[in-house]
Specification:
By secondary structure, the protein is of the alpha/beta class. It folds into two domains: 2-171 and 222-249, NAD(P)-binding Rossmann-like Domain (Rossmann fold); 189-221 and 252-320, UDP-galactose 4-epimerase, domain 1 (Alpha-Beta Complex), CATH 3.90.25. It is built from ten helices and 13 strands. The longest helix has 22 residues, at 85-106.
């Protein structure tokens, strides 16, 4: 299948592009390179463009005879979204509307949307199911939920088949550990902890040690990037028979901040400074997924559920790319 990967130069997008190629699909990357890295793309067509460019999108969809679109081109920083909500609504909602309009004009129906567990806000119960109330508490989560609703109503017109995949914490390195995380600035726990182990930062900081969890630190659900991408392939196949799909993607098991730090120490063989700070506003004590629906309906199973294996892949990538991707 000929697939347009929007944001295909980013962390998840580049791993998805590589997996599509391995599975003998024909990916075309569409990215403005504002956050992604050209060095993360290899062996496929590349179009440098912005999602706000409706004419270029239509031209690209028609030129390459695109049959499906995977959309990873979102801004993802929760804190930044609070400081710049209009930028997030423009990029994540308005530009997605332009993309969907271009797809409609080009007659492309299949759409895989990179959503987020942030649509649930502060859940009343964990693990979180797809039926849990959606109550996002920040602009980032609100923009993901707004796009999900837009897709829902567009699907009712008969012009869109979509899967909304609600990620928990994507991590690790994929494609034989050749494609890893290189966010600038970085805000994710595993790469930040690895940076401390590599001596690239003076310490790793824990925000809150008095949560109602076994070791007092927040617990999160970490999913290996290749498990995440594999679920996209299965969802894409299921869109042949379905018009609307919504799935949680996570391991269903949580690890605490302290467990992540200790695992990085074990894998790296390095010790480093850990600084304990006050809680951050808006951090839930526990966020874990119930991904039974994806398992039952897609036949999906995480192949890398173990935190140590996830960290090993990330450590390998970061130590082999100490400065990240070349500019």
């Amino acid at each position: 299948m000929r697939i347009l990967v929007c944001g295909g130069a980013g962390y998840i997008g580049s791993n998805m592009t590589a997996m599509l190629a391995v599975e003998e699909h024909d990916p075309v990357v569409y990215d403005n390179l504002s956050k992604g890295h050209k060095a993360a793309i290899a062996g496929c067509e590349f179009v440098k463009g912005d999602l706000a460019d409706y004419k270029l999108l239509v031209k690209t969809l028609k030129k390459y005879k695109i049959e499906a679109v995977c959309h990873f081109a979102a801004l993802i920083e929760v804190g930044e979204s609070v400081q710049a909500p209009l930028e997030y609504y423009h990029n994540n909602v308005s530009c997605t509307q332009i993309l969907l309009s271009a797809m409609e004009a080009a007659g492309v129906e299949k759409f895989i949307f990179s959503s987020s567990a942030a649509v649930y806000g502060m859940p009343r119960q964990v693990p979180i199911t797809e039926d849990s109330p959606t109550a996002p508490i920040n602009p980032y989560g609100q923009t993901k939920w707004a796009v999900e609703r837009m897709c829902h109503f567009q699907s009712r017109t008969g012009k869109l088949r979509y899967a909304s995949l609600r990620y928990f914490n994507a991590c690790g390195a994929g494609n034989n550990c050749t494609l890893g995380e290189d966010h600038r600035p970085e805000s994710h726990l595993i790469p930040l902890t690895i940076a401390a182990a590599m001596g690239k930062s003076d310490a790793i900081r824990i925000y809150g040690t008095d949560y109602p969890t076994p070791d007092g630190t927040c617990i999160r659900d970490y999913i290996h990037i290749e498990d995440l991408c594999r679920a996209h392939l299965l969802a894409l196949n299921k869109l042949e028979q379905s018009r609307e799909l919504v799935y949680n993607l996570g391991n269903g098991k949580g690890y605490s901040v302290k467990e992540v730090i200790e695992t990085v120490k074990k894998v790296s063989g390095k010790d480093f400074k850990v600084v304990e700070s006050d809680r951050r506003p808006g951090d839930a004590p526990i966020l874990t997924s119930d991904a039974a629906k994806a398992m039952n309906e897609l036949g999906w199973r995480p192949e890398f559920p173990d935190l140590e294996k996830i960290v090993e892949s990330a450590w390998k990538w970061h130590t082999e790319h100490p400065d990240g991707y070349p500019d």
